[in-house]
Design a protein that fits this description.
alpha/beta, 49% helix, 5-stranded parallel beta sheet, 549 residues, binds glucose-6-phosphate, 11% strand
């Protein structure tokens, strides 16, 4: 492929940008009563309204042309069919096979992987039903009431966002905890509130070598043995999810307590695999399968909807528009739903680990911006914190707003007030407030003319701030599955446009190597001169403070 910036559609977008960059969305709405119909699309009950974006018919047409010119559809089909599109790790990318509810064959090296996926799903069902039904108990006969997932990154954030978001579906009396940080505080604070006899530990690690997970797992094991005085019981209370069965065996996990997945599942794309075990334990296997079905429905939409109606492609191309033409450095996600409070953290990993790259698929440095900084919070909380910058700051921040029409916890009129805030914010960000409108308000408040003149500039809102509104009926497992798959595919499409490999993570691997050398230095308890002046002095100051292990 020629360099992205040399493509005809890119150049056309560049020329078009100069014409549209100062156009006001409020004028576009005034000129076109059919703007919503034109710039919205739906998949099941999930509605995407993208009409509050700085686009007109021509912009949208050109963005769709760009998607076609970079062969988004061809790359999509390559991914689904199991081609080795992860070119730096020599692997296919097949998280979509994990939720392939149609069961049509998917081949890796000539082998249909569906039978082994179904085998592990059946194993998860059997195990989780026995635990939840009280047939599989702790060594002393206690019901299992607490699940502790020990994992980090992709082996933590995915199951965590699902468990947190799906609390209304959790089995009564079942608690789930996530321990990831190497900071001993994380594990310690969780262990304070559980009893070993009713606790099940899931050691979740694709590689089973990640230092944080292995150390936390060893510490948990030690705590278990010390508190129960029963080493033999470890095998009943520890299970593993991994692609590395031999390392799990060495840890002392029984074969029947190992849940397998495969190297063609990327860590941050793995919640649909056995990494979802805590989800199935907490919510039940039926709910886990509904989650898979929702994701599969989004997969089908992504594979079959024309580009102009294709939700992941549209979100991706709008992101490109702001990232590469308006130089927007970040993208915000505002979920007007308390259950989705961990969504920004999950999306940060998904997006920034996938598209935080500078080298293209030909091994050359790119000369355009790639993945944005992803951040966000729940609404309405965020309105009382950083929305000021969205409304009147100097930085462009395109944002996605998500909201369910129905609350899982109706309470007086609280949900309709939440909805009113959602509508009001996206409208205000688009519409702004002109000088005339602000003046009229100040005058109506009876302020003297000289005060009005002084205050007026502060009361003007430029508006023209783009948002996507994503609305659905209610946050069900199926909806959540579809939403997470929507973002996975959005990220994939952007990676295709930027001509990068969205599926490796050498920066993460680098981090895994970095600490070990310094850790040996710390263990010596001697002052060091081995590193740069800053690092030496920081380490030596830590020695002076008599750091703890
Ligand atoms: C995800 C990354 C990374 C990974 C963790 C945990 O895509 O590769 O976040 O998930 O580093 O790795 P393990 O599952 O191998 O412990």
């Amino acid at each position: 492929m020629p360099n992205l910036t040399e493509l005809a559609s890119w150049k056309a977008l560049q020329a078009h940008f100069d014409q549209i960059k100062d156009v006001r969305m409020r004028d576009l709405f005034a000129q076109d009563q059919g703007r919503f119909n034109k710039f919205s699309t739906q998949m099941d009950d999930i509605l995407l309204d993208f009409s509050k974006n700085r686009i007109n018919d021509e912009t949208f047409g050109l963005l769709c042309d760009l998607a076609r010119e970079v062969d988004v559809e061809v790359w999509r089909d390559r991914m689904f069919s199991g081609e080795q599109i992860n070119i730096s790790e020599f692997r296919p990318v097949l998280h979509t096979a994990l939720r392939n509810r149609s069961n049509t064959p998917v081949y890796v090296d000539g082998e249909d992987v569906m039978p082994k996926i179904n085998r592990v799903l059946a194993q998860i069902r059997y195990f989780t039903e026995r635990v939840r039904g009280g047939h599989l108990r702790g060594y002393s006969g206690h019901l299992i009431t607490d699940i502790i997932n020990i994992g980090i990154g992709g082996s933590d954030l995915g199951p965590q966002v699902v468990c947190d978001s799906m609390k209304p579906f959790a089995q009564r009396g079942m608690n789930v905890h996530f321990v990831s940080n190497i900071d001993p505080t994380h594990l310690t604070e969780v262990l304070k509130f559980v009893v070993p006899e009713s606790t099940l530990f899931i050691v979740s690690s694709k590689t089973f070598t990640t230092q944080e997970t292995m150390m936390n797992a060893q510490s948990a094991r030690k705590w278990f043995v010390e508190t129960t005085g029963n080493e033999k019981a470890v095998s009943r209370h520890f299970v593993a999810v991994t692609t590395n069965k031999s390392a799990a065996s060495e840890f002392g996990i029984l074969d029947e307590n190992m849940f397998e997945f495969w190297d063609w599942v990327g860590g941050r794309y793995s919640l649909w695999s056995a990494i979802g075990l805590p989800i199935a334990l907490y919510l039940g296997m039926d709910r886990f399968e509904e989650l898979l079905e929702g994701a599969h429905a989004m997969d089908m939409h992504f594979r079959s909807a024309p580009i102009e109606k294709n939700m992941p492609v549209i979100l991706a191309m709008l992101g490109i528009w702001y990232n590469n033409f308006f130089d927007a450095q970040s993208h915000a996600v505002m979920a007007y739903n308390q259950y989705l409070r961990r969504l920004p953290a999950y999306l940060q990993q998904l997006d920034m680990e996938s598209n935080g790259k500078t080298i293209n698929r030909q091994g050359k440095r790119v000369d355009y911006l790639t993945g944005p900084v992803i951040w966000g919070e729940t609404g309405s909380n965020a309105q009382h914190a950083f929305f000021q910058l969205l409304h009147q700051g100097t930085k462009p921040v395109p944002a996605d707003f998500l909201v369910p029409a129905r609350s899982k916890n109706p309470l007086g009129e609280q949900h309709s007030v939440l909805l009113a805030n959602f509508f009001a914010q996206t409208r205000a960000l688009m519409n702004g407030k002109t000088e005339d409108e602000a003046r009229a308000e100040l005058e109506a408040a009876g302020l003297p003319e000289d005060v009005v003149d002084d205050v007026l500039p502060h009361k003007v809102f430029e508006g023209n701030k783009p948002t996507n509104s994503i609305m659905f009926e209610s946050l069900e497992p199926r909806t959540l599955g579809a939403l997470l798959a929507l973002y996975e595919h959005k990220v994939f499409v952007q990676g295709v446009v930027w001509d990068i490999n969205s599926f490796d993570q050498w920066g993460v691997e680098y981090g895994k190597q970095l600490a070990s050398d310094i850790q040996q230095e710390l263990a010596s308890r001697e002052n060091t001169t081995r590193y740069d002046d800053s690092t030496n002095n920081l380490i030596n100051y830590c020695m002076l403070l008599k750091f703890s292990d």
